[in-house]
Amino acid sequence: MSEGYVLKNLRPAAFPGMDGTVSLDIAVKEGRVAGIGRELPAGNSMRTADFQGALVSPAWIDMHTHVYWGSCDIAARPRDIGAATGTPILVDAGSAGEGNFPGFREFIIKPARERVIPFLNVGSIGLVATNRVPEVRLLSDIDPARIIRTLESEGDLIRGLKVRLCGIINSETDILPLKLAKKLSRVLGLPLMVHIGLPPPLIEEVLDLLEEGDILTHCYHGKPAGSLSDDPIAFAAAERARARGVFFDLGHGSASFSRRVGLHCLTRGFAPDTLGSDLYAGNLNGPVWDLSLVMSKMLALGMDFSRVLDGVTRAPRRALRLPEADLAPGTEAAFTIFDLAETELNLPDSQGESVEIRKRFVPKAVFWRGELSEASSRRPEAGTPGGEFFR
Predict the structure, then answer these.
(1) What is the CATH number of the domain that holds 107?
(2) What is the rounded distance in angstroms from the CA atom of residue 71 to the CA atom of residue 88?
(3) How many whole angstroms separate alpha carbon 155 and alpha carbon 120?
(4) 203-240, pLDDT tens digit by residue?
(5) Rounded to an integer, what distance in angstroms lies between the CA atom of residue 343 and that of residue 358?
(6) For labelling alongside 340, which of 23, 168, 310, 351 has CA 20 to 30 A away?
(7) Does residue 249 belong to any structural domain of this protein?
(8) Which long-range contacts does 173-178 make (Cβ < 8 Å, 24+ apart)?
C-alpha cells in the first residue's frame, strides 16, 4: 500500500448531497478519506491520478452473482466479474448451503480480492448441480437445525438466506419451501432473497408472504404465467409488497430479464431497487457480460441515471443493512470511477430481444482495499479510452 493518493478531477455521485455535477479532488491515506476539495496538494510520498472529469461513486455492489467456483457448477471466479470490471463487492445469491459453506468461506471468500457477501441457500447442498440436481426437491432437503448452527458460527459473513422457487426446482413442494425459509429468516433476523420463475408457485402467492427487508430477484423475468406483466393481480401483489418494504432485484442472468416486462413495469412506475446481474460462468460473454452493461440496459429502458446508480450503490447497502457510504474524513475509501459515454450498441435481453444502448456506463478504475487499479468492461468498444491516469 502506498503512502496515499490524490484522485483529481472527479465528479462524486451517489454520495450524500452529491449528484455528479461538481468536480473535486479526493485525498486518501491508509485506505481512508483524508479530505476532499479543489486543487488538493499532494505530499511527497503521495501518488496523483488525474481522471479529467470522470464520475466517482461508492464502490459498485452486484446484488446477485454466483462465485463459489469449483463447487457450484455454474459459478464464475470473483476476479472475473469483480473489481477488474468496476464491481469490488459481490453478493453471492445462494451458491452454498449449510453442507458446503465452510469450503466457500476458506477457498473463495477469504482469499478473494473482492468482498464476497454470501446469502446462504436454505437447501443443504446449495447449487452444486443447479437445475440438474435441484437443492430443494423435498422439504427434507432443508435442515433448520444445521442452518441455525451455521449462522451461529458464520454470522459475521452471511447477510441473508436464499430460496429458489419455480416449477423446475420444486414443483412437488410448491409454496412450502418459502414458508419454511420465511420462518427461518424471522428466527435468525435475516432478510430472505427469493428466486422466481416458471410456476408453481404463483408469483402473487410468493409476494404476499414476503416481509419488509426481503428481496425478490428476477423481477423482470419473462417466463410464461410467472411475470409481473402477465396479469393485474400479480402486478398489484408487487405494489403491495413494495409498500411493505420488500426490495425488488433485477437478477438479469441468462434467462431472467425481459425487455418487454421491463418496459411494462417502468411505464407504470415500477423500477427495480437493485440491479443484480446474476453473473455466472455461462453468461460472461453474453447476454450479461458485466454489471456496467446491465446498468446501461436499464438506462436505455428509461430508468434515470441517478436511479440506475442507486441500484448498485445506495439501494444494495440498504438491502444488506450496511451504512451509507460517504466522503467524510476517516471513512473507508471504496470507490468506482467511471464515465457515461455515448455509444451505439444493440445488446440482447434474456429472451433474444434487442436493447438499443445509446449511453453506456464505462468503468475506468476502482479504489479498493487501499489501492487504485484499472477497471474495464468485459465488452469494450474499439476506441474506448484506457485507464492511463497516473502521473
Answers:
(1) 3.20.20.140
(2) 22
(3) 10
(4) 999 999 999 999 999 999 999 999 999 999 999 999 99
(5) 5
(6) 351
(7) yes
(8) 173/136, 173/137, 173/138, 173/139, 174/200, 174/201, 175/200, 175/201, 175/205, 175/206, 175/209, 176/139, 177/122, 177/136, 177/139, 177/142, 178/206, 178/209
